[in-house]
Amino acid sequence: MRGIALFASACAVLALGGCGLVQDMRAEYVANRALRKATEELGSKAPRLDRLRAHLDLAYRLRRQDPAFLARLAPLYQTAGGYEKAIRCYEAAARLDGQPRDGEIGFCLLKLGKTKSGLERIERALKQGSDDLAARRITPLEYSGILNDAGYALADADVRVGDAFEMVTEAVQIAPLLPAYIDSLGWAYYRRGEYRDAAFHLEQAARLIGRRDAEVLWHLGAVHARLGKLRRAESELRQALRLDPANAEAEEMLRDMRRELPPPATA
Fold first, then answer.
1. How many CB atoms lie within 10 A of CB 114?
2. Which of 26, 30, 56, 218 is 20 to 30 Å from 179 by CA-CA measure?
3. In 3D, which of 134, 172, 137 has the Cα closest to residue 152?
4. Longest distance between any two alpha carbons in the chain, whole Å
5. Strand, helix or coil at 81?
6. Residue of 81, 76, 71 lying closest to 55 (CA atoms)
7. Is the whole-model pTM more than 0.85?
8. What is the pLDDT of residues 4-29, one digit of tens each?
9. What pLDDT shows up at residue 78?
């Protein structure tokens, strides 16, 4: 009888464990499907921010204890403007693999208006990159990516614009044909108030990367608005917002421009 009881107990444990395993597999399946839908929403012609965040939040709830999965969620949350959750995901991923992700976290902190802590993270990323370059752990091209990301983060936050300009200029010197770097340089010119130089570089970036990039369209719209090309700016800002509904700055600029645009011509 004792043998039968032990056998029955073992079966019960296996059943319970199997139930937990099935639940975990189902949660992973649903989370992956939500992540896929979020990616599809982001890549659609007119992504909806509410649907995008709903998919991301579902995936986050189901896999919040899975750092490897959160590492995949982090950049999507950042793109969707969910900077608080992007930081949580980046930090969880950093604890998993030991890669600090200071640049990404610094960018999100600056977007949240946490300038001091954001700058500390950016400086830490730059120092690590400089040390890695000196020790030949990374190539000059990899270092240019660190310079570009840090410089763009500062320019985008409109802080230490002089430093940002120097960083992205150096990045462009290392890799002169990368459109992301040229866009960053154009944006740094914009923050310096040098709108014609900004337009030159941003148009070059648009030719290289195409005119369906939300960030480039936003930057072009902003600079053309400053140059008084309001109709062109309006079109570019509208396109940018269709591709990236989370861009509050573009939305605010477009709203302000509507007060300045002349009424449509009538027959």
1. 16
2. 56
3. 172
4. 98
5. coil
6. 76
7. no
8. 333 344 344 334 445 556 677 888 99
9. 93
Q: Supply angle C-alpha 37, 40, 43, rounded to 5.
A: 150
CB-CB neighbours of 195 under 10 Å:
19
- The Cα 86–Cα 182 span in angstroms is 26
Q: List domains and CATH numbers for the chain.
A: 54-99 (no CATH), 101-178 (1.25.40.10)
b/e per residue 47-80 (b: at least 16 CB within 10 A)? bebeebbebbbbbbebbbebbebbbbbbebbbbb
Q: Dig out the tokens for 117 from the structure.
A: 């802590």
240 Cβ partners below 8 Å, 6+ apart?
A: 214, 215, 217, 218, 221, 247, 250
Give the C-alpha separation, 40 to 199, whole Å.
31
* pLDDT, tens only, 172-223: 999 999 999 999 999 999 999 999 999 999 999 999 987 788 999 999 999 9
Q: What is the mean pLDDT of each run of 10 residues along the chain (267 residues)?
A: 40 44 81 93 84 93 90 92 95 89 97 97 97 97 98 97 98 97 98 97 93 91 95 94 89 84 48
